[in-house]
Amino acid sequence: MDISGEISERARAGELLSAVELDALAAADLLSLGMLADEVRRLRVGDAVTYARVAEWSGDAGQIGEAGEVRITQLPDSLAAAVAVITGARAAAGSRLLTVGSLFDIIERSWKSLADVLAQLKGAGLDAIAEAPVDRITNLEDALQACFDADLPVRCLSLQSPMTGSRAPMLLAIRSAVTRFPGLLTVAPLSREQSVAVPTTGYDDVRAVALSRLALPSVPSIQVDWIQYGPKLAQVALTFGANDVDRVSPLTDETLGRRRTAVEDLRRNIEAAGFKPQERDHAA
Predict the structure, then answer these.
(1) pTM of the full predicted structure?
(2) CA-wise closest residue to 244 among 5, 19, 52, 46
């Protein structure tokens, strides 16, 4: 199905598309959708593609490499142990950004009230929370408010599980959150988990990226995960509205030459897609 001229013009103008309009875009010809999303991202954010070298904390400072961010992806069972892990990671990270991977993982443990837990994690040296999965957190906006009150900003809204059916309700929920919290600048629309029974296709993935770009005019960064989705899909996603790449390896292994390191491979892919690579500002 072709995209109507009215929807295209509203998208280019940065107007808020309705659920009906988003569903119409979801049913549109994929290449036309991608071209519109690419045009909109260039109008809104230009041709720069940001990326982050992220070290996933394992307790080994030698694995931090050239990371700009150290991310704690696994929390221990107790709050006291979590505080100890953050304290140790803070000492090893130095001036680098120190984050915990998922707000849902903190909430799920039910250690104390969320406000009390966040205050202790902040006191131990945590700078921010890497992401909040919108499909897992009940009362999302209340949870986000608690994070910002604790001076622990959430850096990305994400999706944990694969979606079936219309994406419009999820996109509208994200739009509500970013309207209330203008500091939310990044959305990762591709699920962190994959269905074994019904895996997504690359076509589904780039359609999700394009819809997010068109549905969220106030969000500057639409993100893809380098490790999970790989260079091929990441490169194509850049032409469908994405402009941020997360979790690039911070380690520099020059066994095969400098041009074959992870960051140089990424930069080469970005440039081949016609964009300008720029390492992300890691300020919390």
Answers:
(1) 0.92
(2) 52
